[in-house]
Write a structure and sequence with these properties.
Largest sheet: 6 strands, antiparallel
CATH topology: Thiol Ester Dehydrase, Chain A
Strand content: 35-45%
InterPro entries: DUF4442 (IPR027961), HotDog_dom_sf (IPR029069)
Protein name: DUF4442 domain-containing protein
Organism: Streptomyces vietnamensis
Distance between the termini: 32 Å
Number of strands: 6
CATH class: Alpha Beta
Pfam families: DUF4442
Radius of gyration: 16 Å
Number of domains: 1
Helix content: 25-40%
CATH architecture: Roll
Order of helices and strands: HHEEHEEHEE
């Protein structure tokens, strides 16, 4: 099962928008939102909620790719998200996510018994390459034995 398939299976909301997972590595995740009139806003572009879900899904994909080998001992959780809508988005939009800290550093904190936090930065672009939105999601890896 690919990371995109796993994300769509475990997070049903991600599957509702027919997101296309184009690239998913520990360094970068690229996810596309097809142009679908059912998810348009009042000006004919993708609704802000659809763009948020697109970007958050890209961040989840890179988190799974980077930390999937840690799932037996920790659960990834989004702690906080901030999005800025920069330009009018029309048609197909693509979200590209990158980790804000080295994965090895995050795992080292987990190894030390900490609950590490790390940002994921996402750019949302139109087909012409213009950045229409920017989002940062702060994630944590919550150890499974937390609270025991």
């Amino acid at each position: 099962m690919s990371v995109g398939e796993m994300l769509a299976a475990t997070v049903p909301m991600a599957g509702t928008l027919n997101l296309e997972f184009l690239e998913t590595t520990a360094e970068r995740a690229v996810v596309r939102l097809p142009d679908q009139p059912a998810y348009h806003n009042h000006v004919g572009g993708p609704h802000a909620g659809a763009m948020f879900t697109l970007a958050e899904s890209a961040s989840g994909a890179i988190v799974l790719a980077a930390f999937g080998d840690q799932l037996s001992r920790a659960v990834p959780l989004a702690v906080k998200a901030e999005i800025g809508y920069k330009k009018l988005a029309m048609g197909v939009v693509t979200a590209t996510a990158t980790l804000g800290r080295p994965a090895a550093e995050v795992v080292a904190e987990l190894d030390a018994g900490q609950r590490p936090e790390f940002p994921v930065r996402i750019d949302i672009t139109r087909e012409d390459g213009a950045v229409t939105g920017e989002m940062t999601v702060l994630w944590t890896l919550r150890p499974n034995d937390l609270g025991k």
